[in-house]
């Protein structure tokens, strides 16, 4: 008979392998479980992020936010399902999450990063809410021109000219509402042809992050949809290595940092503790591992770093 220490490693290896296989199967199933829309319909909606380059005829500007929107949608549906939302609301949320950043279609990440990186460096407001709070005398529709006045000297120092494209990039942040509204209107016939209806509250949900005041008179479940979107799109953004390098000066993504950053949305009252606790639970259970790895740009087969596994085990 073999001594017990020969048996133990074999059993522990077997259990470990079984656990790995279960986790891999769970990750592989994640995409299928939450597909509400047909694949070709979802692909057609996401293709709306790619736009023709007016400066270079025949060229397409690939949508920088396209993959972010797609992954955000999967997180949103996972959280919404866990919160017990109806199939109708899940379908609404899928379309909302897929389109939520359409207002930035046509963005050149270098130019966008140059403008708002410079604004941040000079202590200028980088979001419309910040600008309107700091300068209460400025009306919402004046925000893009006001921001341009504030940043013009710094832009000129850097040799950046005030082109139409630059103004448009400022509008992506300082008139996100107008830009999103215009693009949704433009795309409405195509969406209708795909069998998708843009309901009036959908814009309110998409705009909740930048224009939370629009939610004041909304129904409870519409508000909940807004909270889920804000929590999940930021969850993706804080895990997204490309955004981290391009905008946030981040060298690494860590789950503990992600939830530390998300905590401010809860503190501001933008996201409820129930939504945040659900997102945290689904993160620590491993249900979002496949999406996290995609956002981080690591292979699906590689495990999460030890510090993330420790975060998950802590169940925080
Ligand atoms: Fe987003």
How would you summarize what this structure contains?
This protein has 316 residues and is mainly alpha-helical. The protein contains 16 helices and two strands.
Task: Please explain how this structure is put together.
- There is one protein chain.
- This protein is mostly helical.
- The protein has one domain (27-314).
- The protein has 16 helices and two strands.
- It has helices at residues 4-33, 39-46, 66-82, 87-99, 109-121, 128-134, 143-157, 164-174, 176-193, 200-207, 220-239, 241-246, 255-267, 273-284, 289-296, 306-314, and strands at 51-52, 60-61.
- A two-stranded antiparallel ribbon has the order 1-2.
- A hairpin with a 7-residue loop joins β1 (51-52) and β2.
- α3 runs antiparallel to α4 (87-99).
- The chain is globular.
- Fe (ii) ion (FE2) binds next to α3.
Average of pLDDT: 89
State the separation between the terminal residues, measured CA to CA.
Answer: 45 Å
Helix content: 55-70%
Task: List bound small molecules.
Answer: fe (ii) ion
Structural class: mainly alpha
Order of helices and strands: HHEEHHHHHHHHHHHHHH
* Outline: globular
Strand content: under 5%
Write down the domain tally.
1
Number of helices: 16
Widest sheet: strand order? Answer: 1-2
Low-confidence stretches: 1-10
Q: What does the radius of gyration come to? A: 22 Å
How can the largest sheet be summarized?
2 strands, antiparallel
* Strand elements, count: 2
Question: What characteristics describe this protein?
Answer:
mainly alpha; two-stranded antiparallel ribbon; disordered N terminus; binds fe (ii) ion
